[in-house]
Design brief:
The chain is mainly α. The chain has one domain. The protein has 4 helices and no strands. The chain starts with a helix and ends in a 7-residue tail after the last helix.
Length: about 120
Amino acid sequence: MVGLYWLAVLGWTRAVKLVANRLGTSVLILVGAGMLVLGYASGAVGQSLASVGAAAILVRRDFAFMHSTLQTWATEVVPESRATMISLFEVAERMLDEQTEFVQHMTKALEHAERENTSDGRCGR
């Protein structure tokens, strides 16, 4: 699952490069925000590997589409406050890293629980 998460990073980063100039800043931010909402909703609806996998892919799409666009836009809009904006983005990125670590731990716990439940064809031990 963690591998899927990082494959999504590579895939979405390349995708955003292809469409960035055609879609524009506003659309990239809206698409990213929408994917973030869908990603968290997917993880909240069910705790299966499929829903957590979908959450990982959608949340990484948000990061590729929205985060980089917001960072670039913010430093262009207020160039005299560039250092402040970069600092704020660093704080936000560290918070995202904490969320990512939490999702990774939850994913490992889910994988372990599913292995326990299916290893001998019975539920539980």
